[in-house]
Amino acid sequence: MTTLDYWVIAIFSIGILVAGLSMSDRKADMKSYFGASGALPWWMSGLSLYMGFFSAGTFVVWGAIAYEQGWVAVAIQWTMAVAGFLIGRFIAPRWRQTGVLTAAEFIQQRFGSSVHKFYTFVFLLMSFAYNGAFLYPVAKLVNVSTGLPSHWAIILFGLMAVLYTTSGGLWAVIVTNVLQFVVLTAAVLIVVPLAFDKVGGIGQFIQDAPLGFFNLTGGEYSLWFMVAFGFYNMVFIGGNWAYVQRYTSVPTKREAKKVGYLFGWLYVFSPVVWMLPPMLYRMINVDLGGLENEGAYLMMCKEVLPAGMMGLMITGMIFATTDSVNASLNVSSAVFTNDVYKRLHPGSSNKSLMWVARLSTLGFGVVTVLIALMVPAMGGIVEVVLSIGALTGVPLYGPAVWALFSKRQTAFSVLFVTISSLLVNLFFKFVSPALFEISLGRMQETVLGVTLPIVLLAVFEVIYRDRPYRVPTATDDNLAGADDASQGRRRGTLAVKTIALSLLGVGLLILLLGLLATHGRAAVLIIALAILALGAALILSLRRSRRANG
C-alpha cells in the first residue's frame, strides 16, 4: 500500500458518503423512505439486488473456496443464476402483485397478527446475525490490505454506512449499490489480465493448476450440495425480506420480473471473472491455511495493481460489502417501524414515524457492529454464512414464498413448519454432536435444511386440500397514488443524476491513476474512458427525458 492508495481510499470514501447523503429527503414518508414510492427503475433494483446479495461474501467466502478448490466456487455461484431466473419468472411478480410495503405486511394480511408477530421477531433477531456476517468481510479486507485491526475497521466503516442509510433510506442504498457495481466491475476487469500476466498467461495457469482445480464439484461441495444450495438460494433471494423490497418497489409486475432476470444473467457471467483472482493467486502462493485463505483475493490484488488502484479496489470492496448491511438495515427498520411501532401506535404522525425509522436504523446498525466483532469466535466467515443459511434460510422464508402460490396453508401450518424445522436443524448442529457424537457435513446440513420444511409444507397441502384461501392481490394500477408516483419520478431523476455525476468523478480519478501508473496503464485508461462514457450517457439521457417531458 502506497501513500497514493491511502489518499484514494479517503477520497473515494468521502465521495460515496456524499452520494448517499445527497439522497436525503426531509419530506420523505414511509412509502418513499422504505419503498421508493413504488417507482424504482428495474435496472437499479436489479443491480441493487445483485450487489446486496453478491457483495456479502464474494471476496472472502467464495474467494477462500476459489483459492482452495478452484472452479467449485464458480459452480456454487451458478446456482444463484438459476435461482434468479426462477425468481424472475415466478416469485418476483407475485410479490409485486400483493401490493405490500414489506413481506411482514403480507404475512399479516395472509395469516393474522399472531403469525405476523412471530415472524417479525424472528426476522429482526436473525437480521442481526446476517448483518454481522455481512459486515465482517469489511474488517477482513481492510486488515489484509492496510493492517488496520479488524475491530476498528468494523466500527469505522459500519457506522459510516449506517449514517447515509439512516439519512437517505432506500434511495441512498440503491444509489450506492449501483455505484459499487460499476466501480468493482471495472476494478476486476483491470485485475484479471494483470493477474494472468503475473502467472505467465492462460496456458501456464491451466498447466500449473492443481489436480481437479477445474472440477464443478469437490470435497464437501458435492452435486447434492449444489442442488440443495441452489434451491436454498431461490427461497432465500425470493423470500428474504430485504430482497423482497426490490420486487415490491418497482412500478409493475413486468419490471419485477426484469429484476430477477437481470440478477440471473449477472450471475451467469460474473462468477467466472470474479473468481479468477483468488484462483490465480494459488499459483503464486500455495501456503495459505486456516482462515488465511479468506484474504487470498486481496493478496492477488496487492500483487498486480498499480499504485492508487489498490486503494480504489479496497474501498470499492468495502462499500460494496457494507451495501449488503445497508439493505438489510433499511428493511429491518421498515419492519420495526411499519409492522411493530405503527401497530402499537396507530395514530402516529408521519413525522414521528420517520423519527422512529431513522433511530431504529441507527440502533440496528450499532447492534450489527457488535455482532460482527464476534464472528472470528464463531469459526470464521465461511462457517458462519453457510451454517446460518442452511439452518434458517428455507425454514424462515420458505413458508411465505409458498403462501404466495398456495391457497391452503394456514397460520398453524406455517408456524409448525418454521418452528419444527428450526428445532431439528439446531438439534443436529449443536446438540447431537455434543451428546451423541453425530454431526452433519456441509452437504447433509444443507440438504436437511432445505428438504425438511418443503416436505412439511407439501404434507399440509394434502391435509388442507379442502380449505381454499384467496391470496390477497393488487393490480399495478392501484399500488401507488398520483402523488406517490410523481414523487417517485422526481427521486428517480435525482438518483440517476447522482449516479451519473459520481461516475464522472470516478472516471476522472481512475484516468488520473492510469496516467500515473508504472504498469498496467493501458488497462486502467481503457476502463476509465468506459466509465466516463457511461456517466456522460446517463447525463444525456436525463436531458433527452427533460426535453421529452417539456
TrEMBL record:
Molecular function, one GO term: symporter activity
Protein keywords: Cell membrane, Ion transport, Membrane, Sodium, Sodium transport, Transmembrane, Transmembrane helix, Transport
Domain of life: Bacteria
UniProt key word Nucleotide-binding: no
PROSITE patterns in the record: NA_SOLUT_SYMP_3 (PS50283)
InterPro entries: Na/Glc_symporter_sf (IPR038377), Na/solute_symporter (IPR001734), Sodium:Solute_Symporter_SSF (IPR051163)
Transmembrane segments: 6-23, 43-65, 71-92, 118-139, 151-171, 178-196, 221-243, 264-284, 304-322, 355-378, 384-405, 412-435, 447-464, 494-516, 522-542
Cell compartments where the protein resides: Cell membrane
Protein name per the record: Sodium-coupled permease
Species this protein is from: Parapedobacter pyrenivorans
